[in-house]
């Protein structure tokens, strides 16, 4: 069955080209129902085993332009051909716009390269072989096979097939992987392809033997199903395909290739406005379709209808779905409707009637619902019981910590009535801080985190929570509670109470108005019932309220010094950069240790540098660099430009005070009371100058 080839090499004395039908090793069964594909009245509706639906047709007046078929009744059974070509039609699908053909086979032998065009001579706007469904299968060996579209050399697909010693020239096991057979995809959906065959080694002149090649365009699924590929290879290997024909005793084999077709190369929108719109049946609709080569449209019957949409009233008024159980399953009561059907469960049952045993009696359903409801209630009861057990365990744990922490606190507090009034519950603290929301965090130290809280009486407080649950941290917390309970000064944060219901105690500190850190420390050193050394004065332990008023905070490291003593020996504690160098070397704690730390804080205010991270290239700390520049009268090199601009003289005085406070010897440092007085004088002078300018 020669489709069409146009030789482009005129020197082919050895080669013979044949397009032939193979022996009938198996047949391709058409997949069409005559009842659903209707021809025009008086026209042939079937040729052999293949239905002929309009717009296809055999004979004058029976087909639409471009869809002519030929029925050759000299064969048994009769064969249907595409127009006047040798392509045999195997199946026509109206709904999917598909056309399956027997594409034939071509054979070439020789030593010289060959070029040709090979395909089906039909209008590309109507029909095209699908590159998605089909491949080239080239049987034989000793060649390089190339294929491209005739009007484009941009897309070239190729494959090689080599011959191995001792192996037959054609593979016979159904494989097509480069030995005795090779496979190449179609470069695009089309009706015609440019083929080129070269002997292996021709490019370097090392051709060893003549090549032989037999190639087909076949559907990939067909090749890999029911050993079709292997049977075709054996037929070629056994010489059933020769340059001179096929032995007459063998029946033909049909090779299936899939193509797509369009009724017209118009979109549905344009087709509806045209005078020759193809969807003539009232129960049909237009479907935009791409045949792989060009866009167009096909017609389909509406859902629930069958027939031919290209003929007036061609789509049957209704398909009786209830009588076609395999296509329209229904295991309940089936009700036929116009264009569709309805499947419902019988009375007294419910479920899915389209599935076997899908309809269940309502009593069984209610029983299942009851069991499901009981299961839900049981799960709910288990969850509720678990929550109550957890709450009970948490309550016991809170009571345990309450007793433990309360005992430690009361050991250091003289007035037990005051202690009782200062105790807050954990629920109150969680509510005040929105469960210790990270957005409420206003500070963080080495031992604790400070949160902003709002009590039920709308008091704004700071809530300090220790981060570690070890005994030393608990002792530090109790120490801070004990110290702050004895302090009542407006310059020091006021202690309102504490929570003892967790393993890590909580500290509640009132954000009150205060004047200056120096005045606060002076009070702690001299005005309190015992002299209190803070031991950890630094910027992060100074809280600021909405009015930017300073409040001394974090007394976890504080120590009390009896009135009759001036110093005590203790372990080193404080923050790097603020830590008193003399205390660090001698381990002797005095009030001057706070003076040193306060001086460092003044240096920080003057320079806007962080003492714990500042380091010069020469290795000097912030305090050392400050003292060096102060002695050299070069403070402008380290002072914050804004500070120097707004008050150069005041900055110089503060620098003098800071230099005295950070003196290496405690005896050379002033007391906090002296510092307070110097700063008050400076503040008064600065205020007077400001008022005079105003």
UniProtKB/TrEMBL annotation:
Pfam families: GUB_WAK_bind, PK_Tyr_Ser-Thr, Pkinase. GO terms for molecular function: ATP binding; calcium ion binding; polysaccharide binding; protein serine/threonine kinase activity. The chain crosses the membrane at residues 366-385. Residues 436-682 form the Protein kinase domain. Keywords: ATP-binding, Disulfide bond, Glycoprotein, Kinase, Membrane, Nucleotide-binding, Serine/threonine-protein kinase, Signal, Transferase, Transmembrane, Transmembrane helix. GO terms for cellular component: plasma membrane. One of its GO terms (biological process) is cell surface receptor signaling pathway. ATP binds at residue 464. It is found in: Membrane. Coiled coil: none annotated. Residues 1-34 form the signal peptide. It is a single-pass type I membrane protein. It comes from the Eukaryota. This is Protein kinase domain-containing protein. It comes from Miscanthus lutarioriparius.
